Automatic annotation (TrEMBL):
Annotated source species: Pseudorhodobacter antarcticus
Known catalytic reactions: 2-phosphoglycolate + H2O = glycolate + phosphate
Name of the protein this chain belongs to: phosphoglycolate phosphatase
Coiled coil: none
EC number: 3.1.3.18
Short name of one Pfam family: Hydrolase
InterPro entries named in the record: HAD-like_hydrolase_sf, HAD-like_sf, HAD-SF_hydro_IA, HAD_sf, PGP-like_dom2
């Protein structure tokens, strides 16, 4: 059985709006305004909560060190969990493509560096929980992407074999994970970086989900 593993943020769904809103809420609660922009700072949102806090603190001239960032990170996660799917939208064709894969006999799974509880909450809010045989987050194991064991265990829990699998993502972390695991990597070209993901030299760039099956059949023949 072939297995297709998806990243979540920036790959299946554009979560940047809710991530940035959560980071801004941290600063706003301290009376420091909303330093992050929902459009201009999308790439930073997909780099993670700490990256957003660093950017916001820098813009505000707060002089925070990593201890300050670590102290605010749980606040950000709590804010995010309270409004996890207000602005988030699945990318066009994502659901149809995953359904098509499952109908064709593929196993499907999610491997994300979002905390597992928040990832489970999000896919439930988006109504896609039943489309994936496994979901592993940043804290599901002692390691996380780009450590290949995070990916391998995701494939195993979905009922597949790593040698018959591939990863679909949107960042250098996903590329590095796939290279470490020795599996093909498809990067999406419709995220905030657009065609710029070509600099990462993936095995394929997915322009839209309608073309997914053809790309998979080329990289992971039946």
């Amino acid at each position: 059985m072939r297995t297709v593993v998806f990243d979540l943020d920036g790959t299946l769904a554009d979560t940047s709006g809710d991530l940035i809103a959560a980071a801004n809420a941290c600063f706003e609660a301290r009376g420091q305004g909303r330093p992050l922009d929902a459009v201009a700072d999308q790439l930073t949102a997909f780099a993670g909560g700490r990256a957003m806090l660093r950017l916001g603190a820098g813009r505000l001239g707060l002089g925070w060190d990593e201890g300050d960032i670590d102290a605010q990170y749980p606040v950000l996660l709590a804010e995010y969990g309270r409004a996890i799917a207000v602005h988030t939208r699945l990318y066009p064709g994502a659901v149809r493509s995953v359904e098509g894969l499952r109908g064709a006999g593929f196993a499907t799974a999610i491997c994300t560096n979002k905390p597992e509880g928040l990832a489970v909450q999000l896919v439930a809010a988006l109504g896609i929980s039943d489309l994936f045989g496994a979901l592993l987050g940043a804290d599901s194991l002692p390691v996380r992407k780009p450590d290949p064991e995070h990916y391998f265990e995701t494939v195993r829990r979905a009922g597949g074999l790593p040698a018959r699998s591939l990863l679909i993502g949107d960042t250098v972390t996903d590329r590095d994970t796939a290279r470490a695991a020795g599996v093909p990597i498809i990067l999406v070209g419709f995220g905030p970086e657009g065609a710029g993901v070509s600099r990462l030299e993936p095995d394929a760039i997915l322009d839209d989900y309608d073309g997914l099956m053809g790309v998979i059949d080329r990289l992971l023949p039946g």
